[in-house]
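Hi there,

I know you've been waiting on this one. I reran it after we fixed the sequence typo, so this is the corrected version. Both the input and the resulting structure follow.
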Amino acid sequence: MTAYMIARIEVTDPEDYAVYAGQTVALAEKFGGRFLVKGGPQAFVEGTGPGRHVVVEFPSRIAAERWYNSPEYQRILPIALRASLRDLVIVEGL
């Protein structure tokens, strides 16, 4: 079943965050991931939210978890954690 990694991100250090973000696409592709949303303009129709949203499609929840837990992703994760405030969730699709 397809799964989506959804991230709500408030970038606190754009320069440092760019180092992290520049590596995520190729890494996700190694695990079958495909970025559907990566920042970009947004319009809030209800409530408020962070300055950035990301949605990555994976072939399964297991593939998404393997990506997140991989040594390659864990190597760049500290950059994201120091350069942003964020919530991540993996949601299975229909």
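Quick highlight: The chain is about 40% helix and 30% strand.

Best,
R. S.
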